[in-house]
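Working notes for the structural subgroup meeting. M.R. asked for a predicted model of this chain before we commit to crystallization trials. I am recording the input and output together here so anyone reviewing the notebook later can reproduce the run.

Input as submitted:
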Amino acid sequence: MKIDGNTSDGYHTFDELYHHRMILFSIICNQNKRRAWKSKKHNDGTMYDNYFIVGITTPEGDYTYHYHLDNWHYFDVMEVSFAPEWDGHKPEDITRLLSLIADIAGR
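Returned structure, recorded in token form:
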């Protein structure tokens, strides 16, 4: 069986789920404009062809994703010349985003 973006769990394809994740992350970034940024370059000046990086700085550290340039317009956040240096965050650090809720609530 070929596994690609059209592979489905019976409800959604991988492509649909990645699109959903991007939309949800854009909402988080757009609602936290003072903390969010996007760049066409990593901090060392490199970047994957036709991609950009978008991130948000939470009280617990940064969280980022790379997206195709076609999706640049979804992120109405500050454009920076170079992304901040990667702080080593990993997929399991997604819970850093929860710290935004406590920060907004003033906890």
